[in-house]
Amino acid sequence: MRWLLAGYCGLALISMSVALNDALMVTQKPRALAMRPHSFLNIFCHSKQHPRNNVTWYKADEYNSEQREEIKRGDRIQALTDPTQGPYLYINDLRMEDRGVYYCKMENKWGPGTAVHVARPLSHSHALYRTQMKDALIILQGLLLAVSIAAILLRKRHVFENTDSLYEEPETDHIYEGLTIETCGGGLYEELSVYAQADGTEAPWE
C-alpha cells in the first residue's frame, strides 16, 4: 500500500512539473517567413501565462546567435497585443535589412525565434537575361567538352601512328639484288677448261 501511495505521489509531482514547464514555455508563430519587399508581417509570441505588458522583442542575424539587439519601435515596426492571440510584432513596408531571426522575451524566457527572409526584387527583363546567360553557359560548356574529347582522340591516334611507324617491317629485298655477274666474251657462263691447265704451265694471261 505504501508503495502504491508513493507511486501516486511521484506521478503527481511529475505532472505538476510538466504543467509548470508548459506554463513557462514561450512559443512563437510562425517559425519561418519568406516575404516580398514592401509587404507586412505579424509575429506572435504566446505563453499560457499570457503576460500582456512584459514582452520584449529582439533581432539576431542567425539562429543561436548571442548578439541579439532589442528592436526599437518606430513608424514601420510596432509591438502590439491582440485580445485573443496575445502579443505580436508588426513590421510594415519590409526591406532587405529586415532579414534575420526575431525573438520575443517574456518573463526572462526566450521564444524559439522566427526566421524572416525578404526576397530581393527581380524584374522580368533581368530574369530573362539571367536565363539566357545560363543557356549560353550550358552551350559553351558542351562545346568545350566536345573539343576536349576530340583533342584527346586525335592525340591518341597520333601516338598510335608513331608507335606503328617504329615497328614497321622493312621491304623484302631479293637476296641477289644488286649482284652482277661479269661476262667474258658475251656468254653468261664461260667454259672453265681454258683456266684448267696442268701444274707448271703458264696461264694464258701471263
Q: How many helical elements?
A: 2
The level 1 CATH classification of the domain at 24-118 is Mainly Beta
What do we call the CATH homologous superfamily of the domain at 24-118?
Immunoglobulins
Mean pLDDT: 75
User: In terms of structural class, how would the helical and strand content be classed?
Assistant: alpha+beta
Q: If you consult CATH, what is the topology of the domain at 24-118?
A: Immunoglobulin-like
Q: Tell me, what's the shape?
A: elongated
Strand content: 15-25%
The percent range for helix content is 25-40%
- What is the straight-line distance between the termini? 156 Å
Largest sheet: 6 strands, mixed
* CATH architecture label name of the domain at 24-118: Sandwich
Radius of gyration: 51 Å
Tell me how many strands there are. 10
Low-pLDDT parts are: 1-23
Following the backbone from N to C, one meets helices and strands in this order, namely HEEEEEEEEEEH
Structure description:
The protein is an alpha+beta fold and 206 residues long. Among the domains are: 24-118, Immunoglobulins (Immunoglobulin-like, Sandwich); 122-166. Helix content is 32%, strand content 23%. The protein contains 2 helices and 10 strands. Strands 2, 4, 5, 8, 9 and 10 form a 6-stranded mixed β-sheet that branches. A 4-stranded antiparallel β-sheet has the order 1-3-7-6, with no helix packed on it. The protein is elongated and about 95 Å long. The relative contact order is 0.12.
